[in-house]
Amino acid sequence: MLSSPFITTPTSVNQIMLRVLLALIPGIALYVWYFGPAILVSITLASITALATEAVMLKLRDRPIKPFLSDHSALLTAWLLALSIPPLAPWWLVVVGTAFAIVVAKHLYGGLGSNAFNPAMIGYAVLIISFPAHMTHWLTPHALGGIELDFAQQLSYIFHGTLPAGLTLDAVTMATPLDTLKTQLHLGLSVSEIRDMPIYGRLAGHGSEMVALGFAIGGLYLLFTRIISWHLPLVYLGTLFAVAGIFHVFDPTHYVTPLFHWFSGAAMIGAFFILTDPVTSPTTAKGKIIFAAGAALLTYLIRVFGGFPDGMAFATILMNICVPLIDLYTQPKVFGKKDGLL
Q1: What is the pTM (predicted TM-score) of this model?
Q2: Domain span including residue 303
């Protein structure tokens, strides 16, 4: 039988970040299984850059280095950014995006706890706007493409930009399932015709749907351990499902099923790992619901009607702008307050 005192030690930032990193592992493992180990190189490069840049900025700001480096927040930014860009991205692209995320999006706003925008998504936005061609070279899943690069060949391309003789980048890369869907719809094909293409699996893209499932498993672990609350992921996925479902029922020829949107792009990693950033999301339960619903609506609108195939990053950034206003109007009433008087 339990006895008092029922006082628990609060979970430290270090422990929270470690558990979030741990929760990313199932998705990363499936990423490696379906697309090869190149993503591990991107994660390593981003991690080294994030830690080095964090240390330099802390030194310049005359802050203690060890406590902030050991809280693992820089590592989490690095991992999320690396997972958001193509695994064959040249090494300098990973370094530039990660450094920008840490220096500008994090430290120029005052460091952890003061940044208004999710640093990883700012880094991604800068890369896709500045280097759009490099951000489209996604690896073809195993057993789908006729030619596959081994690890040494992937390393050679990442660091030297060279491929085996006679081989072009188009032979080993492809557009994402979301990008392919949008392109083929503009060419006049129906959803059913597009879904018959070999890059698609049962729910969404071959391989990528399983990676999304891995991130969902990690997200459920975060919910079970109460690292995150249910409001953001459930409302985001629920709203995305509802909006996509309405369009699909209205016109199934031109709009895919809600499950396709769930298991495509960054929906799962966004729902459980990006929107749930405690610094850049609302603090109130009602505010989290508004924030998540708005992010889901923007994600869908950008995916279907916007100029980018996936809208998770820009939806997050746009909703980050609204957080102060959301928090202002969703604060619960002070106990004992009535009609503006105490």
Answers
A1: 0.91
A2: 175-342
